[in-house]
Design brief:
By secondary structure, this protein is of the alpha+beta class. 40% of the residues lie in helices and 15% in strands. The strands form 5 sheets. Strands 3-4-5-6-7 form a 5-stranded antiparallel β-sheet. A 4-stranded mixed β-sheet has the order 8-9-13-12, with helices on one face. The protein has a two-stranded antiparallel sheet with strand order 1-2.
Length: 369
């Protein structure tokens, strides 16, 4: 994640809504992946200081303040490209829900920032009602509308189905998420991690299923035609495979090839975002600056040529996570990245890297044509 610069020279961060130096309103322009300050012109329209173009606030920005993305003034949509992906939001009559929803939206926008920078296909459910990408943020129902305890409780399962990503609102509650992490015997469980993981299922459908990459996928991850329900029941009854550390990137990845892909995909996005952040802050280890894995300009040449091969990217990642974990231990915190990457998991990460680059190249070629 990059930082940005206000017109007054102050450093801005992705989630900011106002510059603390000059006081101007801020908004993120997804079409340019840029945070900009805004002024009001003589006609009352919001004008971006970064490009001089006119915009309006996303409706979830102006009405609920749970978003900071902008919509081009000429766009008929009231919502930004992030919020228009929402298929269901929590009941806002409960004030706690709004605070949790705001956390959901922030994590979703962080996911979309990376997906947009990687030039990955994003098709909403208006364009493709059957398989387009959408999000539903729902909470377990334990009471009726009158506050009476329900005999049968309705539990929301976080997951993906045909492009629709459902995430239990409790995952935005830090205490509830940590409690679930302990119950599931997990070393790592974050809200952003859920978004990245579930997006992996969506992109398996978009980039792997029915393509010429399926054979290589099966060689690395296994045959996804294995019965998923049976695999899930076996995992929860018997736990992960005894040798999971030598084959899979996490214990949960050992459940089924689909979960192996989604876990590996999430780790790949963790790597890219964290390395870009380190590069943006000129982070160096032993005199070697961490390279950015994502092109920093919009030129076609820079989009085609990345500054890092996968080997370079992964070597930087290994060095960076050693420092991150050491810093956390110095503060008495858990490891920021409690994983050891086996050769098998490394090959899977490399495959995902190549799939992403192939997709970017294909979109650039189509654009040039």
């Amino acid at each position: 994640m990059k930082t940005f610069t206000c017109q007054c020279g102050n450093t801005l961060h992705f989630a900011n809504v106002q510059c603390v130096s000059c006081g101007l309103m801020l908004g993120f322009i997804p079409q340019e992946n840029r945070l900009s300050a805004f002024t009001t012109n003589q006609y009352g329209n919001l004008q971006a200081s970064s490009n001089g173009k006119l915009y309006k606030q996303c409706k979830n920005y102006s009405e609920h303040n749970v978003c900071n993305w902008m919509v081009p003034l000429e766009d008929d949509h009231d919502y930004c490209v992030s919020c228009r992906l929402n298929e269901a939001i929590p009941d806002l009559n409960d004030p706690e829900n709004k605070a949790l929803w705001a956390k959901m939206e922030q994590s979703k926008r962080r996911l979309l920032y990376t997906l947009l920078k990687l030039n990955l296909p994003l098709v909403d459910r208006v364009q493709d009602p059957t398989n387009g990408l959408g999000f539903a943020f729902l909470r377990d129902k334990t009471q009726d509308s009158f506050g009476n305890e329900l005999t049968v409780k309705s539990f929301v399962t976080t997951g993906h189905a045909n492009g629709l990503i459902t995430i239990n609102l409790n995952e935005a509650d830090d205490s509830a998420r940590v409690d679930m992490r302990e119950k599931m015997n997990e070393r790592y469980r974050t809200l952003l991690g859920h978004f990245r993981h579930e997006s992996g299922h969506y992109y398996w459908d978009r980039l792997i299923s029915g393509t010429d990459k399926i054979d290589e996928f099966r060689r690395l991850f296994g045959d996804e035609r294995l019965d998923y329900v049976q695999s899930m029941e076996s995992y929860y009854q018997n736990g992960p495979s005894e040798n999971w550390q030598s084959v899979w990137i996490s214990a949960y990845a050992s459940m089924h090839p689909w979960e192996d892909w989604a876990e590996t995909w999430a780790h790949y996005l963790h790597m890219l975002d964290t390395l870009e952040t380190a590069n943006d802050y000129d982070f160096s280890i032993s005199g070697n600056k961490i390279a950015s894995p994502i092109p920093n300009t919009d030129s076609v040449i820079d989009q085609i040529y990345t500054s890092t091969s996968f080997t370079h990217l992964f070597n930087d990642w290994c060095q960076l996570t050693k420092v991150l974990n050491a810093l956390n231990r110095s503060m008495g915190l858990d490891d920021a990245y409690p994983f050891v990457i086996s050769i098998s998991a490394l090959d899977k990460l490399r495959f995902i890297h190549e799939v992403v680059l192939d997709t970017d190249m294909l979109k650039l070629t189509e654009g040039a044509a």
